[in-house]
């Protein structure tokens, strides 16, 4: 195509303004091609298809023909220009025509397009740094972990007729709630929950000490206890050891296995703390602007993760916000600092990976893919090979960063795990 050399202007927030002109001969060619296409498909009274004159076509569909010709010629011109420049548009942002030019087949066409591009980043020091980290959280004791495993494999057995509700019990109830005019606004049958769970009904604690068949009432609310089940922990013996892992044949072997797992978890927590503190240090000394479309894309990902974590459809998520009397925009505003942190980390890691040429070979990918069980049926559903490769690539990069920096444990710092960083 005959196009002038593009003028590239960098705007705030990593936005690009691209200006260029398309020569009149190209405009005429695209205009004629579009007009001929319309001629072969348009139905004009008194003329066979393909025979209607230009004047009638323009009289009936002039604006639509101009709009289509403009869309096609600008699209093709942009594709040609993007082959020659580094400033590529982000996948999260569609290039927008800013000047809405009038297409005249006899005149050159001035075009101005804006789009977000990947930010130019000045990455701060990332090697040979001294980073202060908090001590790892206290390691769970062997007895605590064995207790947790037993509770994890507990079975529910009905309490005796004289038994009462206690904390930790599974309770099945029928309940109904009345509105201001005594109409039923909520009714559930055979609703089960655990007393003392993280998200119990508001009245759950009031049921402690009550028997099966008893009824609890408060204003506008009636609750009928249908069943009480207590959690029965398995015996801590050789059989329980084989339940945890088929390769463990004795309780002694289970204890050694649990000790090794606890030590591994503590090392992972220490490694995670090193990575988080190092990233924060690099980010503090880096400079770049986050494109708005990149921020909106990240917030969209966080919203989908929120729905997935809470087992909600999009419609159910919207209903949840209505019940909470909140807008999605309010949620996004609260999430924005976290989204910005995630984007900053992504940009930093990609820049370092490219600069240091840290890449995951196919052999490394296959070996670690198998070792980390990323090929399990569940992960086949939730992760593509590309997602698994990205995860393993990031792990390799973090190992490189940890190896090329110094870390000092500072007991005055609060644990990153406890802070939920």
List the helices and strands and how they pair.
Layout: E1 7-11, E2 15-22, H1 24-41, H2 54-82, E3 96-97, E4 109-116, E5 130-133, H3 142-152, E6 155-158, E7 170-178, E8 184-194, E9 215-218, E10 221-232, H4 238-244, H5 251-284, H6 292-309, H7 314-323, H8 328-356, H9 362-371, H10 377-382, H11 385-403, E11 406-409, H12 416-419
Parallel strand pairs: 5-11
Antiparallel strand pairs: 1-2, 2-4, 3-4, 6-10, 7-8, 7-10, 9-10
Helix pairs in contact: 1-2, 4-5, 6-8
Short structural description:
The protein is α+β, with helices and mostly antiparallel strands and 421 residues long. Helices cover 46% and strands 17% of the residues.
What shape does the CA trace take? extended
The level of helicity is 40-55%
State the major sheet.
5 strands, antiparallel
In terms of structural class, how would the helical and strand content be classed?
alpha+beta
Keyword list:
421 residues; 5-stranded antiparallel β-sheet; 4-stranded antiparallel β-sheet; 46% helix; extended
Please provide a written account of the structure.
It is a single chain. The chain has 421 residues and is α+β, with helices and mostly antiparallel strands. Helix content is 46%, strand content 17%. The protein contains 12 helices and 11 strands. The strands form 3 sheets. Strands 6, 7, 8, 9 and 10 form a 5-stranded antiparallel sheet that branches. The longest helix has 34 residues, at 251-284. It is extended and about 95 Å long. It starts with 6 loop residues before the first strand and ends with a helix. The model is unreliable at 375-383 (pLDDT under 50).
């Amino acid at each position: 195509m005959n196009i002038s050399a593009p003028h590239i202007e960098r705007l705030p927030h990593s936005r690009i303004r691209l200006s260029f002109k398309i020569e009149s001969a190209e405009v005429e060619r695209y205009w004629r091609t579009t007009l001929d296409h319309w001629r072969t498909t348009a139905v004009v009274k008194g003329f066979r298809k393909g025979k209607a004159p230009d004047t009638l076509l323009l009289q009936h569909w002039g604006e639509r023909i101009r709009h289509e010709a403009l869309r096609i010629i600008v699209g093709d011109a942009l594709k040609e220009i993007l082959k020659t420049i580094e400033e590529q548009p982000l996948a999260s942002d569609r290039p927008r025509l800013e000047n809405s030019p009038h297409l005249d087949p006899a005149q050159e066409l001035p075009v101005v397009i804006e789009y977000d591009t990947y930010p130019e980043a000045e990455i701060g020091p990332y090697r040979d740094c001294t980073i202060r980290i908090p001590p790892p959280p206290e390691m769970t004791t062997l007895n605590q972990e064995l207790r947790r495993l037993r509770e994890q494999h507990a079975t529910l057995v009905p309490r005796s007729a004289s038994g009462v509700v206690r904390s930790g019990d599974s309770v099945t109830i029928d309940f109904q709630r009345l509105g201001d005019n005594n109409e039923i606004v909520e009714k559930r049958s055979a609703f089960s929950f655990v007393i003392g769970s993280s998200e119990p009904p508001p009245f759950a604690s009031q049921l402690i000490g009550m028997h099966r068949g008893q009824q609890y009432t408060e204003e506008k609310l009636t609750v009928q206890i249908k069943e009480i089940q207590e959690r029965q922990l398995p015996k801590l013996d050789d059989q329980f050891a084989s339940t945890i892992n088929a390769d463990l044949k004795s309780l002694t072997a289970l204890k050694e296995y649990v000790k090794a797992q606890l030590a591994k978890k503590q090392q992972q927590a220490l490694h995670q703390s090193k990575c988080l503190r190092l990233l924060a240090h690099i980010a503090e000394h880096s400079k770049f602007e986050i494109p708005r479309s990149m921020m909106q894309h990240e917030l969209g990902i966080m919203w989908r993760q929120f729905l997935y974590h809470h087992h909600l459809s999009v419609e159910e998520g919207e209903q949840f916000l209505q019940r909470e009397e909140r807008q999605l925009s309010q949620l996004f505003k609260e999430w924005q600092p976290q989204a910005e942190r995630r984007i900053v980390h992504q940009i930093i890691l990609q820049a370092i990976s490219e600069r240091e040429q840290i890449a995951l070979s196919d052999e490394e990918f296959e070996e670690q893919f198998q070792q980390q069980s990323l090929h399990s049926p569940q992960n086949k559903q939730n992760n593509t090979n590309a997602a698994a490769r990205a995860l393993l690539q990031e792990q390799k990069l973090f190992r490189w960063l940890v190896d090329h920096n110094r870390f000092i444990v500072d007991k005055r710092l609060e644990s990153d795990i406890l802070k939920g960083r």
